[in-house]
Amino acid sequence: MKIAVIGAGKIGEAVARCIASSSIAESVMITKRNPSTLKLVDRKIRVISDNAEAAAKADVLIIAVKPGDAGHALAGVAEHTSGKTVISLMAAIKISRLQSVLPGSRIVRAMPNIAATIGESMTAYSMGEGFSAAEAKRATDVMSTFGECIEVKESLMDAITALSGSGPAYIAIIIDAMVSAGLKVGIPRDVAFRLVAKTLTGTANLLSSHPMHPAELRDAVTTPAGTTIAGIYELEKGSVRTSIMNAVDAATDAARKVAASFDSEPDP
Ligand SMILES: NC(=O)c1ccc[n+]([C@@H]2O[C@H](COP(=O)([O-])OP(=O)(O)OC[C@H]3O[C@@H](n4cnc5c(N)ncnc54)[C@H](OP(=O)(O)O)[C@@H]3O)[C@@H](O)[C@H]2O)c1
What pTM, to 2 d.p., does this model score? Predict the structure, then answer.
């Protein structure tokens, strides 16, 4: 399978590398308006500046430009996408809109996250109409190269953009805060970082591999009048849960506003 990634930015480059290092792709092309600014060094990835050329040669296209650049990027590939699978990683732009600009193509709207850089993305996706079982499998095979994927209703996509698309930024802030907390109680920064990062991935892996409510895990490590409850008491005073819920709520509103602004624009 030949795959073209239109838009060699942070997420485009990450997914292109994942696909190139998997066995599913015969070749990977990646495009950028200005390829000279790209430092990507990977023998299997061909960097080109012509979107139409990449689209004509590809079996599957991945659109990874900013939503504001979608008009130009999609217009450049539209002639060559009929009958092909197009996976859009763009926030805010609906399947119906992509379908009207790229008639005859099979559209997947996907929201990965930056953990795709190490093949650890959690990618939510919705499929448009017209997919055969083989085409649907091909699309999920491509997305599985950059991590796990889960099919969802398209109506959830703005909320998912806010939760797991933006999620790495929230987690980075939490890690930073915990490292600062470690410094405050006398732990060297490098040691604190290793402790915090592994505590975070270890806890997430534990909850994923032994499904239980997070509150059960919290209770299992919280002894009466112990150290953990002393810490939890202060965390709850800081309304950490409400802050996180408010953050995701605000990001969802922001994603919906961007989506509404695209809905009211004429087709590119
Ligand atoms: N970053 C994330 O964590 C993340 C996660 C999930 C989804 N997304 C989505 O992925 C998309 C890209 O985000 P990003 O963070 O990777 O942005 P980015 O780093 O700014 O990358 C966008 C790239 O698109 C290229 N580009 C723009 N117009 C183009 C065109 N007409 N033809 C070819 N290339 C073009 C730009 O390079 P030139 O200007 O040189 O062309 C740039 O390298 C967005 O729609 C975003 O919603 C991002």
Answer: 0.95
